């Protein structure tokens, strides 16, 4: 019996300091897109909880939304890599004072956030996938990462490719860099996302 109580106390004294040291911050989405082409018509944000050498997407109370964890890089204490709402292989790069966050998703799209005060009633991340976290009124908080009214891009018809060079980045006849996409191969109208917001 004494061994059991000692074991329980040992676990309590090990876990409690970890939980006490956890810090949850809210980061408001500022923009997203590929390098040089950013969509600023955005809304939403993420709660990020830092705990020892990991961070994860959580609700306002620091409870994981179940999208995984990111581990801090030993050579760069502001860089975290792992699994998040965007999938496995996501990177979080924070500024040294943790006021800004640059998320690079596995498909190369970059999301830029700034530390902020969460909007009234917001209790969980905006990118949750099929979770039932809710605010006090019981409604789901899942704002769009683009404006609420979006449609398939009328120039590339949702492909994300430059319609002038068909995504190759150069004029096939002259072999010069495509002037419409500056050689990126991405549609200049939607930034290569295939969607366009009103």
Helix/strand order = HEEEEEEEEEEE
How would a crystallographer describe the biggest sheet? 8 strands, antiparallel, barrel
What topology, given as strand order, has the largest sheet? 1-3-4-5-6-7-8-9
Estimate the global geometry from the Cα principal axes.
Answer: elongated
Number of helices: 1
Helical content class: 10-25%
In what range is the share of β-strand residues? 25-35%
Q: What is the mean predicted local confidence, pLDDT?
A: 76
Structural class: mainly beta
- Give the total of beta strands: 11
Query: What ranges have pLDDT less than 50 throughout 5 or more consecutive residues?
Result: 9-19, 129-149
Radius of gyration from the alpha-carbon trace, in angstroms: 21 Å
Through-space gap between termini = 67 Å
Give a verbal description of the structure.
Strands 1-3-4-5-6-7-8-9 form an eight-stranded antiparallel barrel. A two-stranded antiparallel sheet has the order 10-11. The protein is built from one helix and eleven strands. It has one helix at about 1-20, and strands at about 25-35, 35-40, 45-50, 55-60, 70, 80-85, 85-95, 100-105, 110-115, 150, 195. It is elongated and about 85 Å long. The protein is about 10% helix and about 30% strand. With about 200 residues, the protein is mainly β.
Q: In a nutshell, what does this entry contain?
A:
This protein has 198 residues and is mainly beta.
């Amino acid at each position: 019996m004494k061994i059991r109580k000692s074991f329980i106390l040992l676990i309590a004294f090990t876990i409690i300091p970890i939980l006490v040291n956890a810090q949850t911050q809210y980061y408001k989405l500022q923009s997203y897109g590929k390098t040089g082409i950013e969509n600023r018509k955005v809304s939403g944000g993420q709660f990020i909880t830092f705990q020892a050498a990991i961070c994860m997407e959580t609700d306002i109370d620091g409870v994981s939304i179940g999208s995984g964890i990111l581990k801090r890089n030993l050579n760069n204490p502001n860089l975290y890599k792992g699994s998040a709402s965007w999938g496995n292989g996501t990177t979080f790069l924070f500024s040294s004072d943790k006021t800004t966050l640059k998320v690079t998703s596995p498909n190369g799209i970059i999301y830029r956030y700034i530390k902020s005060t969460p909007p009234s009633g917001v209790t969980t991340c905006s990118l949750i996938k099929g979770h039932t976290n809710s605010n006090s009124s019981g409604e789901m908080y899942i704002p769009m990462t683009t404006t609420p009214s979006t449609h398939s891009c009328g120039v590339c018809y949702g492909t994300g490719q430059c319609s002038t060079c068909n995504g190759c980045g150069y004029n096939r006849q002259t072999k010069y860099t495509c002037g419409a996409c500056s050689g990126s191969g991405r549609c200049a109208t939607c930034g290569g996302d295939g969607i366009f917001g009103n």
